[in-house]
Each structure stands twice: as C-alpha cells, then as structure tokens.
Amino acid sequence: MNLLKINQKVFQLGVLTLGTFALLTSSYKVLASNPEQIEKKSMLIAQSSREQWRICNKKGANWSEVKYFESKNYFANICRNGNGQLTLVAGAKSNPNELLELPVSGKQGYLAVDGSKTFMIDNSHFSMAINGMVVQKEQVTYRGQ
User: Fold this and answer.
1) What is the tens place of the pLDDT at every residue in 35-44?
2) Among 35, 78, 99, 136, which is least packed, fewest CB within 10 Å?
C-alpha cells in the first residue's frame, strides 16, 4: 500500500472515531439532562421484574409470602404453604423459570438444605455452602414483606 492510501485509511478511521465520540457525547448529555426520568424508568423495570419474582401467592390459594429478598443476581421467596411449613422458592434473575424449592428452618435467617448444598438467607446476605464451605455469597439489595 502506498503512503497516500495509508493516509486515507487513517483519515477515515479518525472521522469514524470522531463521529462515534460525538454521537455518544450527545446521548450522554440527553441522559444526564433528566436524571429523574431515568430513575423513574429504572424503578418501573425493577418493579416489573420484582413482581415476576414474588411468587408465593402464585403457587396456590393456601400459599402466602413471609419474606422476599433480592441480591444482584438472585431472588428468594420465603413462603408459608397450606400446612404452615416455610418453604424457600428461589432462583437466578437471569433464569427465573428454573426455581429451587426447599423446606426452610431457622430462627435468625432462613436455612434450606439440598443434599450437600446449604442455602442461607438473612437480612443482609444470601450464601450457598457445599459440604459446609461457603462457595457463594451476595449482599441483599432489597427486602420485602
């Protein structure tokens, strides 16, 4: 390639970069000009998803919600079933149709055991232990009753 063609390619790349920068900068200004509107839309999305994840009452007439928790990646419902037993119904936000449903015990927080896995939820953290060793822990970002 000769020097003229190389200069043309560099020029084209520079124009493309400047155009992209200008577009992103103007979009940022539009978003930054009305942060209240962005917050309202974000809240609507969160509330919409939260209603999808709060499923105790959807399980049947004899089911009721005791507590509801969310972390960055997970949601957990503590439900009371028709027999009065507490049940953990939890899942990943990325795949809310694949649910874990286990009986719960606990006085300070909630504990559910599935073989070698133990799921613990309290007002501040979700955690999962395998064979007694904590392998995952996330901070609770939302609690509801």
Assistant:
1) 555 444 444 4
2) 35
Question: Under a CB-based contact definition with an 8 Å cutoff, are residues 92 and 74 in contact?
Answer: yes
Torsion angle defined by CA atoms of residues 67, 121, 48 and 33, in that order, rounded to the nearest 10 degrees: 120
* Residues 21-79: tens digit of each pLDDT: 444 444 444 444 455 554 444 444 455 578 888 989 888 889 999 999 999 999 999 99
Q: Which residues contact 92 (CB under 8 A, 6 or more apart)?
A: 73, 74, 98
Please tell me whether residue 51 adopts helix, strand or coil conformation: helix
Smallest CA-to-CA distance from 88 within 55, 61, 58, 133 is with 55
Alpha helices per DSSP H over the chain: 3-33, 35-53
User: In three state form, how does the secondary structure of 8-35 look?
Assistant: HHHHHHHHHHHHHHHHHHHHHHHHHHCH
Q: Where are the domains of the chain?
A: 3-33, 56-144
Identify whether the C-beta of residue 143 lies closer than 8 Å to the C-beta of residue 69: yes
